[in-house]
Amino acid sequence: MRIGQQGRPDAVIFDMDGTLFETDKLLIPVHGRVFGTLREEGLYMEEAPPAERLLGCLGMLLDDIWREIMPGSTEAARSRADELLLQYELEGLAAGEGALYPHVGETLRKLKESGAKLFVASNGLEHYVKGVAEHKGIALLFDGIYSAGEYETASKVDLVARLLQDHQLGSQHSVWMVGDRSSDVEAGRGNGLATIGCAYARYGRASELADADVRISDFRELLQLRL
């Protein structure tokens, strides 16, 4: 982990769900629609899992999520769930559903103005991750939006490594990884980055952020950090 000039970062990599985007405001209604359609199509006839279980799996790869919350499901059901989730999420975003966490937009702009390059690295589907950024008016602030869905990476460690390589962010740069789940902390530590855990998110266990270098309870705290 390299210390940047006066402790400020050269680049900051953000997770999306639970970090920038308050996902439950979109995902809870989408969850009901997905399982309703799966039942109508005869692909998954078990009782739908609680939406909280789906929210608790955010940060995992999608196939792992479906295997976790739809045990015994077929590959066809999981594939269709992927399609429906993306379709209903994009429809919800277009209708104005979902919201950024408080102060995200203004804080990202101030970080950008300070000279930091900004990125997203998410385990979600490409069109969903980019759709959130576009519909919520923050897409142009990022130098790159990376998703496991686009790059087909096996872990967030690999996804962040790809991002760093593409943008020539080496050991001579100060780069922060910001996220709310253990996968974000692992991605940062696995690539030698400073890690910042978002304790305001409600989707994971507090213990997931135990190994983060810093934990924040308000997004604006990023502007005061010196790592």
TrEMBL record:
Any one of the GO CC terms: cytosol
Entries under Gene3D superfamilies matching the protein: HAD superfamily/HAD-like, Putative phosphatase, domain 2
Keywords from the named record: Hydrolase
UniProt KW Plastid keyword: no
Gene Ontology biological process terms, A to Z: DNA repair
Any one GO MF annotation of this record: phosphoglycolate phosphatase activity
InterPro entries: HAD-like_hydrolase_sf (IPR050155), HAD-like_sf (IPR036412), HAD_2 (IPR041492), HAD_sf (IPR023214), PGP-like_dom2 (IPR023198)
UniProt entry tagged with the keyword Hydrolase: yes
Name of this chain's protein: HAD family hydrolase
Source organism of the structure: Paenibacillus pinisoli
Upper taxonomic lineage: Bacteria, Bacillati, Bacillota, Bacilli, Bacillales
